[in-house]
Amino acid sequence: MSVIGAEPKLAERDRSALQAGDRLLTDSLAEGLVRFDAVGQIEAGVAERWIVIDDGRSYIFRLRNAEWADGTPVRARDVVPLLRRQIARAADNRIAPYLTAVASIVEMTPEVIEIELARPRPDLLKLFAQPELALVRPGKAGGAGPFRRRDGTRDSILLTPALDPDRDPDEERPTPEQNVLLRGERAALAILRFVERHSDLVSGGTIDDWPTLQAANPAPANVRIDPAAGLFGLAIVRREGFLADAANRGAVAQAIDRADLTGSVSGDWPARETILPEQLDSGAPPMVPVWATLPPEQRPAAARSRVMAWRAAQGSAPVLRIALPRGPGGTLLWAHLARDLYAVGIKPLRVASEDPAADLRLVDLVAPYDNARWYLAEACVACSPEARAAIEAARLADSLPQRAEAAALADRLLTQDVAFVPLSRPFRWSLVALRLRQWQPNPRAWHPLNRLRADTN
Please, which residues have CB within 8 angstroms of residue 91's CB and are 6 or more apart in sequence? Predict the structure, then answer.
């Protein structure tokens, strides 16, 4: 299989920039206490079972009979310091802001671990299933994952199923058919390799690579799109000039024809006008922005009127720098955004994703778990102090009703502030051979390598 991007590397202590291949390899070699299955639900990892008590303030895990890569048994005395170290270094990874409720991690018995929280978090398991919290032993070849690393080729990594310590001695050992040859490579090469039937799976596809896939024209039955949960839209990063006023930011949001943009990519890619995709754990349904109360056909005229008023006062058209990916998908997005903004009198300029002078920047993130605060915090790149305070109140809430109330307030304030322009959900695609029968689309857009065929370990 191929994963789009650089050569996969096992996560080390610094997990600040794990790419798709790094996350996939780390999940395969060094699972956490729990992990995701083929449909994005929680299944056993190093822990075989767990209970949540005290209204979501305490998680107790019983470890399974697992082995590290060197064959030594997994014990709580090994797991506890690894988890403590990773939580302490959480500022290095993308889920750091959502782990601050962890108060202590203690060994209760050689097989039992308790994680105590300062605040209730009944949805914490999906964070612990992320590869950023995989248990990697320093100086070792991995962890206790479902695979072991073997010698591959110059440009690939060979993964073989780890033997189950509890297996029946008479049970057949894994066969070479269960091995995975993993490559990290650019999209064009990965797609070509699949089309030429030299691989069974291409993973990690985003909107940026989609035009390349379309040009290759693979069999439709092999093209799979995940219903990924998360954020896809434009974050306001500089509240200056035209973007200093919320009504002007609303005009930018009004100008964009979302249905045309998403429909030009895929019929499986719905448009979105709210920050929250649904109520989740908020105390109210998603806040509908004021600019979205007009029918779509009336929005360009309303946006144009706002831009013309600003132009009359300033003597020139507003100029907005939009940071987008460099690839063909970024060009596709640019074509639609530039057309719509030009039509209402705004002069857009395309800049690189990392350009510090950008006024708006594309946010394309899959949600690690179904939590309203995640959406609101990630959308709040440069939002009002009031909205930021409400998001912080949701983090510090001592009870679930308080958190729901604070999240609803944050959603309302962030939407009224027009600090984020929602467009859709993240677009994630894969190329999947028909024999990978267990591959399933899911909201996490996550496909563990031991959950691709019926003969899994």
Answer: none
Residue 393 has pLDDT above 70, yes or no: yes
C-alpha 239/C-alpha 298 separation (Å) is 26
DSSP 234: E
Q: What number of other Cβ atoms are within 10 A of residue 44's Cβ?
A: 18
Residue 175 CB partners (closer than 8 Å, separation 6+) = none
Closest CA to 129 of 400, 367, 327, 405: 367
Q: How many CA atoms lie within 13 A of 3 on its CB side?
A: 23
pLDDT of residue 121: 85
pTM: 0.93
pLDDT digits (tens, 9 = 90+) for 83-127: 998 887 655 578 878 888 999 999 999 999 999 999 988 888 999
pLDDT band, very low/low/confident/very high, at 455 (cuts 50, 70, 90): low
Number of H helices, E strands in the chain: 12, 18
Closest C-alpha to 362, from 384, 390, 387, 331: 331
What 8-state DSSP symbol labels residue 199? -
**Alpha carbon distance 275, 230 (integer Å):** 9
User: What is the mean predicted confidence (pLDDT) over 40-53?
Assistant: 94
- How confident is the model at residue 86, as a pLDDT? 83
Partners of 205 in the β-ladder? 429
3-state SS string for 102-145? EEEEEEEECCEEEEEECCCCCCCHHHHCCHHHCCCCCCCCCCCC
Total count of residues recorded for the chain: 457
Report yes or no: 231 and 319 within 8 Å, Cβ to Cβ.
Answer: no
| Residue 248 amino acid letter | N
